[in-house]
Amino acid sequence: MNRWVEFLLALIILIVLSPVFIIITLLIFFTDFQSPFFISKRVGQYGNEFNMYKFRSMKNDAKLKHIVSTSDSDQRITWIGKVIRKFKLDEFSQIGNILLGDMRFVGPRPNVKVETDLYTIEEQQILTIKPGITDISSIVFADLNTILSQSKDVNLDYNQLVRPWKSRLAIIYVQNQSFYLDMKLILLTGYNIFFRKATLKLIQKIVSKFSSDQLLIQISGREITLFPYPPPGSNSIVTSR
Question: Which pairing describes strands 104-106 and 37-43: parallel, antiparallel, or unpaired?
């Protein structure tokens, strides 16, 4: 999608949804009287870091900031944070990142540097384009917090169970991006909130169009239980994180 088209669309969305944004901001602020926004350093195109803005869904607890990935049982999540995460409202504040040119509507989700430093050579493809608010992997793993809810080591389990597939799906998007695919993924992102099973079936069709990897196709439809697997470009399962 053209940069100026995205800029204009982001500006329109910001204006139209400003009343909703104001309500969310006030609800978060009055929960603990701290900043309603969470600013996180993320790695963008070509490995350049930028500040990613999100509505804060967690408590400001310095003792727990070493945990990169989160689960539904994470003690940092506030009551309003659970609502925000359920409907993906924390991502809406990234409209600001689109206006600044750091992100796009569709593209691989931006990761933290400690995670991108682990990328294999094949995974480095993910950093050749701007990150986005949504993409194929974001829809498939929209329930990431639930997947990791019983984890004893969230960061390790993410790298063993989710990263292998999330990276492969991100690479598929990088290699096959188009305006048509972007529009389809934007619509499916909203559809996924209400019709999860139907959305996964449609995502599975998209993945099968671009890949013959039957295991990946099954994972994209969430037809099988996730299990430890090597990230793309590696023959070894991550054993420590």
Answer: unpaired
